[in-house]
Design brief:
three-stranded antiparallel beta sheet; Topoisomerase I, Chain A, domain 4; single chain; 2 domains; 13% strand; 532 residues; alpha+beta
Length: 532
């Protein structure tokens, strides 16, 4: 393969799952991977992406949302109602083929992955060849975040920088996207601009965050559901994707602030990369990875995350936590103003998603990681068909989901408190953490609590007639309590054979039921008055 011919529009690099009944337009089998053009043209025949790495899936979705917005004209508020125009596209059943071909014809030269003639390789900065030290590149083990590099610990696999396995070009593109969206802060390869050399990068826009995406029956529905109405005063000439820029931005200047839909989806990277192909372009042999802007930071503002507020009144995205099941976030997705001291805010993508389809799932994609080096675990979870219960559509039933989630959380919290107290009293150490017992109890409780949650969720009223949403709150309370008691007894059983252990376990059990209630003073009781 000639390195100058690898164009992402046509080359098959995106893994897909075809919808049932989809047929090839020739006698050949349907391909496992497709290029950008075929993905958009045949989105109605594709069930979804089959990207193995969740952060790559999340990043690629944002690129595809931007492309779908461009070819449908939904990247601008324009004339008429934006929601009506989106429904017109939906009724057409497919993305407009003529517009797709027109767009890719216009920007074809910007979608080449490799360009050794001083051009613009896609989502890369060719200036790094001169601005970085060619003898001290990042290497492919650094590019592939699941590999150990340098002195870092091994995560998924062992490897050696001196003789790395070269990734296929298709896999390298996906990891290029992971770096743009989830790249770490801290030290990176040195880059010299205007005589000043520096080697410090800012974290990517989705670093540590968990993002949520509506999923329809086909990828066509998924793309349309993922689009968000753009600001009314922004024109597409002011809202460009990186491959649409006439010139690359000056890295010595602060980064340009994204103004519209497409730039917010694709132009928030804080990293600059350049991939180096092997002789035939089938694999990537090396990579430059460094900072994109010397000073300043692009404001974090993503429409696919749950935004929360810290005690210091700082806004931040709900972090990805591999130990937290997706159902525990469900009320924050369905409710416009979900409860919680962190003041969580529903992702903006769910504002009008119910207009696309009655039956839609939510997929959560993320990377449990620290702000700098440490990467812990990928997160990829999908709910059943839940978006029909959005508060905008089911003002009675949706709050019941929040109540159900709160009950599950309540007994999980009480269980943790109980086992920690039992451990402290057993070893007679008031400051002991009891984290070992707490982790063991959580491992027993939460998977079963998830099953109980979905059982009660499936029994909720779908008609909107029931005042309480059809929630059997007493039954749910009994089920979660039973699971907490079972987990508590299993974790504490080994110490109950001794008198001190049995005493500690027995005394701490009360925490499962809310603990010992403090007695009210006579004055407080008189102020409250008689109880019903």
């Amino acid at each position: 393969m000639d390195t100058s011919t690898y164009n992402l529009i046509d080359q098959p690099w995106i893994p897909v799952r075809w919808a049932a009944g989809a047929r090839s337009r020739s006698d050949e089998d349907l391909p496992d991977r497709v290029g950008l053009a075929q993905l958009l043209l045949r989105s109605a025949d594709i069930a979804g992406l089959a990207v193995a790495e969740p952060p790559a899936h999340s990043a690629l979705l944002r690129v595809l949302y931007a492309l779908a917005a461009r070819v449908t004209g939904l990247d601008e508020a324009g004339r008429g109602d934006w929601d009506e125009r989106r429904l017109d596209v939906l009724e057409g059943g497919r993305l407009p083929g003529e517009k797709i071909e027109e767009y890719f014809d216009r920007y074809r030269d910007r979608f080449y992955l490799f360009d050794g003639q001083g051009g613009r390789p896609w989502m890369q900065d060719p200036r790094l060849l001169e601005q970085c030290d060619g003898s001290n590149t990042a290497g492919v083990n650094k590019l592939i975040m699941t590999r150990p590099s340098g002195n870092n610990h091994a995560w998924f696999r062992h490897g050696h920088d001196a003789a790395p396995d070269l990734p296929s070009t298709a896999d390298a593109v996906l990891h290029l996207l992971i770096w743009h969206y989830y790249g770490p802060s801290g030290r990176c390869s040195a880059r010299e601009v205007d005589g000043v050399k520096s080697a410090s990068a800012t974290a990517g826009p989705l670093r540590t965050a968990l993002s949520y995406h509506p999923e329809g029956a086909t990828f066509f529905h998924t793309l349309l559901a993922g689009l968000i109405a753009p600001p009314g005063n922004v024109r597409r000439e002011e809202d460009q994707c990186p491959w649409e820029w006439e010139e690359l931005p000056d890295p010595a200047d602060p980064p340009p602030v994204p103004r519209g839909l497409c730039s917010r989806l694709t132009a928030c990277s804080q990293h600059a990369l350049l991939l180096m192909p092997n002789d035939d372009g089938s694999r990537v042999r090396d990579a430059y990875i460094t900072w994109a802007y010397r000073s300043g930071r692009i404001p974090r503002d993503d429409d696919y995350v749950i935004w929360q507020t810290s005690q210091q009144n700082n806004r931040y995205p709900r972090p990805a936590d591999a130990a937290r099941a997706l159902w525990r976030d469900l009320d924050a997705l369905l409710l416009e103003h979900p409860p919680g001291t962190a003041q969580p805010k529903q992702p903006r993508v769910f504002d009008s998603v119910y207009e696309i389809a009655e039956e839609m799932r939510v997929r959560a994609l993320g990377f449990d990681q620290e702000g700098q080096v440490k990467n812990t675990q990928f997160i990829d979870a999908t709910t059943p068909m839940v978006l029909r219960l959005l508060e905008q559509r089911q003002p009675r039933t949706a709050p019941a989901v929040g109540r159900l989630r709160q009950l599950g959380e309540l007994y999980g919290t009480r269980l943790q408190r109980a086992v920690k107290r039992a451990w402290r009293e057993y070893i007679d150490e008031p400051k002991a953490s009891g984290e070992t017992w707490a982790a063991a109890a959580a491992a027993r409780y939460w998977p079963h609590a998830e099953a109980a949650f979905w059982t009660h969720f499936n029994a909720l009223d779908r008609t909107g007639a029931a005042l309480n949403g059809g929630l059997d709150a007493p039954g749910a309370r009994r089920d979660f309590l039973r699971l907490a008691v079972t987990a508590y007894e299993a974790v504490t059983a080994p110490v109950t054979r001794t008198q001190p252990g049995a005493r500690a376990v027995s005394r701490a059990r009360v925490e499962l039921y809310g603990g010992v209630r403090k007695k009210k003073t006579p004055a407080a009781a008189a102020e409250e008055g008689p109880q019903p």
